[in-house]
Amino acid sequence: MHRGKGMKFVGDSRVPVGRKQNIPKDYSEYPGKTEAFWPNFLLKEWLVGSVFLIGFLCLTVAHPSPLERIADPTDTAYIPLPDWYFLFLYQLLKYSYASGPYTVIGALVMPGLAFGALLLAPFLDRGPERRPAKRPVATGLMLLAVSATVFLTWESVVTHDWEASKEQGKIVAEADIDTASEGYLVFKDKGCISCHGDNLQGIAGVGASLVDTGLTPEEVADIAKNGTGDMPPGMFKGTDEELQKLAEFISGVTSK
Question: What is the pTM of this model?
Fold first, then answer.
C-alpha cells in the first residue's frame, strides 16, 4: 500500500505486476462513450430482440410448419426424419461403422468425443493470441467440427427420398366405415386390409387410399380383377357375388 495526496492505492494480488498494460482504463476516461445499463442499454437490447421476434413470428405465419397424418405405431414402413439440426447425426448412423451392432459408437461415442473436444478447446489452447493461425488446436477442432457437420447434413439432404417422405406423411381423408356390412367383411376376408388398411386409408408404399375414389362399382370391380398402377391383376380371389358386394362397398366409401 502506497500513500499519495489524500488517497490510498491498494495493489490487487490477482493482477500480475508484469501485465499492468492489459488492465483497461477506467470508463471515466471516455466521456460521452458510456451509458447507463438501466434503462439505456437494456432498452436497446429489448428493441433489437423485439425486431427479431416479430420477424420470426411473421416468418412462421407466412411459412407454417408442414403437418403430417396422426402417428401410427403399427405402421412399420414409416421412416422418421429428424429436424434439420440433427440431420448430421442421422446421416452418421447410416454408415456401417456407426449402425447395426455399432450403433452405440455412432450415437454416443463419436458425438461424445466431438463435443468433448470442443468443450476442452479453451483449456487445450490457452495462448493470448487471437489470430486463428496462432491457435492451431482450437482452430483445427472448430474447422473439423464445422466441416463434418456441414458434410453430413448435406449428404443427408441429397440422399433422402423426399417424395417417399411426402407420401408416407400425407394426411388422408377419414371415413365412417360400417365394419358389419357384407362388403367390408369381403374386404377383410380377401386380404385387402393388408394393403389398404382397416379403415381403407391406405398404407404408404403398399396400397392407395380407397376413400373418396369417385369410382363406380363397375370400375372398382374392373380394377380388383385386372389391376391398375402398382396393383397387379388377379389380386381379388373370390366369387362374382363377393366382387359385386366389395365393389359397391368401396364405391360408396366417402370421407366425413
Answer: 0.51
Q: Is residue 160 marked as binding?
A: no
192 carries a ligand binding annotation: yes
CA dihedral 160, 163, 164, 167 (to 10 degrees): 150
Distance CA 118, CA 142 (A): 7
Strands in the chain per DSSP E: 2-3, 8-9
Residue 3: in which H helix or E strand, if any?
A: strand 2-3
| 121 phi/psi in degrees, rounded to 5 | -55, -45
Residue 58 labelled as part of a binding site: no
Enumerate domains of the chain plus CATH numbers: 84-168 (no CATH), 182-251 (1.10.760.10)
Spatial distance between the Cα atoms of 72 and 158, rounded to a whole number of angstroms: 27
Rounded to 10 degrees, the C-alpha dihedral 52/53/59/64 comes to 150
Backbone angles phi, psi at 2, to 5 degrees: -120, 145
Give the single-character DSSP code of 246: H
**Per-residue pLDDT reduced to its tens digit, 124-182:** 777 777 788 888 888 888 898 899 999 999 999 999 888 878 777 777 666 677 777 88
Q: How many CB atoms lie within 10 A of CB 114?
A: 15
